[in-house]
Amino acid sequence: MWFQPGLGGIMMPMDVLERLLSRVVAGPAVEAGLGEVPGRVSREEVFATVALPSFDNSAMDGYAISAEDCGRTGVRLAVTGEVAAGGADGGGLTVAAGKCVRVFTGARVPAGTGAVVMQEDVTAEENGRGIVINEAAELGEFIRRRGADLCEGQRVLARGEVVSPAKTGLLASQGLARVRVGALPRVALLSTGDELTPPGQPLPHPAAIYNSNGPMLAALLREHGLAAPAQSVLRDDLDATREGLAAALEANDVLIISGGVSVGERDWVKPALAALGIAPELWRIALRPGRPFLFATQGEKLIFGLPGNPVSSFVTALLFVLPALRAWQGAVVEAGSAWRLSPAVLAGVVENPGDRMHVMRGALDDGTGVFTPAPVQESHALFALARSNALLMVPPGAAMQAGEAVRVMRY
Predict the structure, then answer these.
(1) What is the DSSP-derived secondary structure letter of residue 183?
(2) Within the chain, which residues score under 70 in pLDDT?
(3) Which residues contact 292 (CB under 8 A, 6 or more apart)?
(4) Which of 254, 264, 265, 329 is CA-nearest to residue 295?
(5) Which of 222, 249, 290, 331 could make an S-S bridge to 326, C-beta 3.0–4.6 Å?
(6) What's phi and psi for 186, nearest 5 deg?
(7) Are residues 248 and 295 in contact, defined by beta-carbon separation less than 8 angstroms?
C-alpha cells in the first residue's frame, strides 16, 4: 500500500528507488581470490564440474556390509580390510556376504557395499577380525551417494548474485581459487558544516558538535562489504563546497554528501553542483525523516545528497544508497525486493497523520517477534536510533493497532 505515486510532485520512496536503480550503470569486474569474495557480487555464471559427493562414501565410522547382510542381526561378519578417508578405492577391496570392511567417515566405500552399519551398533572382536551386528542396517543406510547433493553441470553461482560464505565453500569444492566479481566502488563521504569537529579533538566552542554522520555512514558501508570511504568535511562556503565536490568527483565513483542539501541560505550543495554543471535528477522525497534527499549523476558517477540530521542521513543511506551501490557492483536489484522485510507484531498503536511515509525506528525482539517503536522519533535522535534495530514504514494517514501484523526492515 505504500508503493503509491508521489504526493504534490514530491516522490514517494519506492518511486525514488526505482528511479535510482534505473540510472545505475554497473562498474567494472575484477578477479578476486576466495578469501576476498564473500559479500561481493558475482559477475559470471559458474557451473559444477565436480559432483558432490564425487564418489560413494561413508557417512559414519563403521563397517561396510553387503546387501545380503542388510536387515540382519546377531550375524558374525569377518573383517577383511580397512579404508580411511582419502583411501583411493578401498585398496581394491570388495564386500561380499558374510564379510565386511572397516570404514571411516568420508572413506570411499568398497565395491559391493549395501550399507554402512555404525560402529556403535556392532560388537567388535578384540583381535579386529570380526564383528557381530546388534542393530540391523537398512539397504543404502549411511552411504552418501555420488552426486546426491550436486551433479556436474548444475549452476552453483548466478551472475549478479551476492557470494555468501556458504557459496564460497561451494566454489572451493569445485577447485576454484578465483572468481570474477564486481569491483568495489571508490566512495567519497563528505560531511558539510562549519560546526563539525572530528572525534578525538576538543570542541573549539559551545556551538560546535562532533561529526557523527561521517563515522556512522562509513561504518554502514563497511558493514555491507564496501571499502572504507575517503572522508572529509566541507565548510559552509560555496567555493569550498564546489572545490571539494570537484576533487571528490575526480577521484571517486560515488559521492555521498551528508548535509547542505536543503533550501537554507547556507546549504551550498545544490549551488555548488550547479556551478559544476550538474543538475539534480531527484530532490525531496515524501519521507519522514529524510525529505531533502538529492540524487545526481556525472556520466556514470553517482552523487547522493543526504540530510544532515543523523537519523535522516542513516535512513536514506539504508533505503537508497546501499541498494544503488549493490547494483553498481553488478547485483540484480529489484526495487520491490531491495528492502528486506521481516514479519513482526506491533507492541502498541502507531499513527501517521501526515502526508509523508514515516519510517519509524524501533526494537524488534527476535524471540517474540514484537516490534516496539522508539520513544523518540525525531530526526536528530541518534541515541534512539542506536538503541533500535529495525525500521517500520508507516504509510501516510495510516493507523496501526497493537498486535497488528507488520513487516519491518532490520539493520
Answers:
(1) P
(2) 1-9, 88-91
(3) 261, 262, 263, 283, 284, 305, 307, 312
(4) 254
(5) 331
(6) -80, 120
(7) no
